[in-house]
Design goal:
Structural class: alpha/beta
Strand content: 5-15%
Helix content: 40-55%
Keywords: ATP-binding, Nucleotide-binding, Phosphoprotein, Transcription, Transcription regulation
CATH topology of the largest domain: Rossmann fold
Radius of gyration: 32 Å
Protein name: Stage 0 sporulation protein A homolog
InterPro entries: AAA+_ATPase, AAA_lid_NorR, CheY-like_superfamily, Homeodomain-like_sf, HTH_Fis, P-loop_NTPase, Sig_transdc_resp-reg_receiver, Sigma_54_int
Distance between the termini: 76 Å
GO molecular function: ATP binding; sequence-specific DNA binding
CATH class of the largest domain: Alpha Beta
Largest sheet: 5 strands, parallel
């Protein structure tokens, strides 16, 4: 470590300051010890620090306030919070406010302390040099199948989850149905020190009470009718791993009592058993209901709630992260194509616009099912609006038949306006056939010029243009126009398009274009 790396230790216990000075100076760090918040502020005025070790409880300052003070004065200084187990919730709050991480006192693993300080120092320097644009958790999320997206809210939540994952504390995940609670739980397991052990999910709402108890804790032979042999439960199987309790709010009060005992003691009994079994399981629980309200309604035990709610994450519904929809669509299309062993279709601009506008009450799960259904209905290279479900289309066009919504939108245009004259021409298109060749060609050039002029007017007024068509749609239209212009002569059409005859034939087949 070079001699330009400075560490500020803020703790009112002299022994802690002495410990860090001896530990870090032999590694090349410059160490300043402050016994109070006032001393720390003076130190910040005198020197730039790469890392600050901050005790949450100081005689004259609040650790969280001091964290904010450090970040305001020296944004490049990474802060590590020192805390006791009883203040874990406050430590998590510190991470939300910008702390690099937190570490429990007393320090049991000196190597862990050294490693954490080194990482904080390196991380701060990488940011100063413009590196580290890809978060540390990126590969872990990819392996866990967790598509985080690009919203700041999701990035912040996953960054915190990555740090919390390495702590041996329970996690509660709240979110609407279909928001991806199990995927987040799998990410937490993959980022934890238990990643090489089992991750076992169980839906507490999917079992009757007696079966859920047997599922969780196992049973002895003869414990109940049908128990023909001894069976180990999930708590036993998940020892040293992670147990994901989905829909925890659906567990009965008697099951809640047994869960509380395991969380408090790490011990349980099989159904019908007398031998105490020890287990070391990390609990990640999830719910789509308000557990705090359930506690007030006496439907959920308050003591169990606080045991589970050490750290809480709230997954936003899809309607609050619409900008992630194109990325999610691309992911589901790719996944679908891998199953079918073929190239994924594209999504037309209008279809994507509709997907972006829909409210998605079923969240990501509903989006995934929608894409699967659209792919099954699509027999060409592009997913069009008519491949979407009636539920989505009827939601977006409640007053109209959605299949003719684009035409109905132009109805009742006053006839004495420009738009009215254009609408009249469209309504009487059969009259175009009787126009002379010269008139038709002039009309065609005028329509194209009008289209260009309207586009320029829309841009000048900074109005939103209609979604552009997919590349495949443009390509198919160009091929049809070229064949029409050259009266079906493939050689001439391919020459004007700048592609080979074989390529043109292949694309005609791909887009279902014939010469008739």
């Amino acid at each position: 470590m070079n001699d330009q790396s400075y560490v500020l230790v803020i703790d009112d216990e002299m022994e802690v300051g002495t410990f860090f000075r001896r530990l870090l100076e032999r590694k090349g760090y410059r160490v300043k010890v402050a016994a109070s918040g006032a001393e720390a502020v003076r130190a910040l005025d005198e020197q730039q620090y790469q890392v600050a070790m901050v005790d949450l409880k100081l005689p004259d300052a609040n650790g969280l306030s001091l964290l904010q003070e450090i970040k305001n004065r020296q944004p490049g200084c990474e802060v590590i919070i020192m805390t006791g187990y009883s203040t874990t919730k406050t430590a998590v709050k510190a991470i939300q406010l910008g702390a690099f991480d937190y570490i429990d006192k007393p320090f049991e693993d000196i190597a862990e302390v050294e490693d954490l300080i080194d990482k904080a120092c390196d991380y701060g320097k990488s940011l100063q040099h413009g590196a580290g644009t890809q978060p540390e958790w990126f590969n872990t999320a990819a392996k866990a199948g967790f598509l985080v997206g690009g919203t700041a809210k999701m990035f912040k939540m996953v960054s915190i989850a990555d740090k919390i994952a390495k702590k041996n504390i329970n996690v509660l995940i709240q979110g609407e149905t279909g928001t991806g609670k199990e995927v987040l739980a799998r990410f937490i397991h993959a980022a934890s020190n238990r990643s090489d052990m089992l991750f076992i999910p169980v839906n507490c709402g999917a079992f009757p009470e007696n079966l859920l108890e047997s599922e969780l804790f196992g049973h002895e032979k003869g414990a109940f009718t049908g128990a023909s042999s001894q069976r180990r439960g999930i708590f036993e199987l998940a020892d040293r791993g992670t147990l994901f309790l989905d829909e925890i709010g659906e567990a009965s009060l008697s099951i809640q009592v047994k869960l509380l005992r395991v969380l408090e003691t790490g011990e349980f009994l099989r159904v019908g058993g007398e031998k105490t079994i020890h287990t070391d399981v990390r609990i990640v629980a999830a719910t789509n209901i308000d557990l705090e309200q359930a506690v007030r309604d006496k439907l959920f035990r308050e003591d169990l709630f606080y045991r589970l709610d050490v750290v809480r994450f709230e997954l936003p519904p899809l309607r609050e992260r619409r900008e992630d929809i194109p990325l999610l669509v691309k992911h589901f299309l790719k996944r679908n194509s891998e199953f079918a062993d073929k190239e994924p279709p594209q999504v037309s601009g209008e279809t994507m616009r509709l997907l972006m506008e829909y409210s998605w009450p079923g969240n990501i799960r509903e989006l995934a099912n929608t894409i699967d259904q659209a792919v099954a209905l699509c027999d060409g290279p592009v997913i069009l609006p008519n491949h979407l479900s009636d539920k989505i289309m009827n939601s977006l066009f409640p007053q109209n038949n959605w299949q003719t919504a684009d035409i109905n939108a132009a109805d009742n245009v006053p006839a004495n306006t420009i738009n009215g004259q254009l609408q009249n021409l469209l309504d009487h298109r059969e009259g175009l056939v009787s126009m002379s060749p010269e008139e038709l060609l002039i009309a065609h050039r005028l329509v194209r010029a009008i289209d260009s002029a309207i586009g320029e007017a829309i841009d000048t007024r900074k109005l939103p243009r209609p979604e552009p068509p997919a590349l495949q749609e443009v390509e198919a239209r160009a091929i049809r126009d070229a064949l029409s212009y050259h009266r079906g002569n493939v050689t001439s059409a391919s020459r004007s398009l700048g592609i080979g005859r074989n390529t043109l034939y292949r694309k005609m087949k791909e887009y279902n274009i014939d010469l008739n």
